[in-house]
Amino acid sequence: MQYLDIAAAFVTTFLGVLLAFGLENARQRRRTNHWVRQPITQLGERVKAVRGPLDDLVLAIDAWVPRRI
């Protein structure tokens, strides 16, 4: 009976440690994803803000000076 108690304690401890490491790994991945995606999202928003006026400028230049291919 003592071996059964030792085995049960080992299994529950092993599962607890495995779950703890798994959860920490998931948290770390989520933090890393947020850390990487936040600047990329901000850069995308800045590009969109600048892209509109630049497109208008290119259209105006194309209308004023036709392209010669």
Key phrases:
69 residues; 1 helix; mainly alpha; rod-shaped; 91% helix; single chain
Gap from first CA to last CA: 90 Å
Structural class: mainly alpha
Number of strands: 0
Report the major sheet: none
> What's the helical proportion of residues?
over 70%
Descriptive overview:
This protein has one helix spanning 2-64. Helices cover 91% and strands 0% of the residues. By secondary structure, the chain is mainly α. The model has no long low-confidence stretch (mean pLDDT 86). The protein is rod-shaped and about 95 Å long.
Can you summarize this structure?
Helix content is 91%, strand content 0%.
Write the layout of secondary structure elements.
Elements: H1 2-64
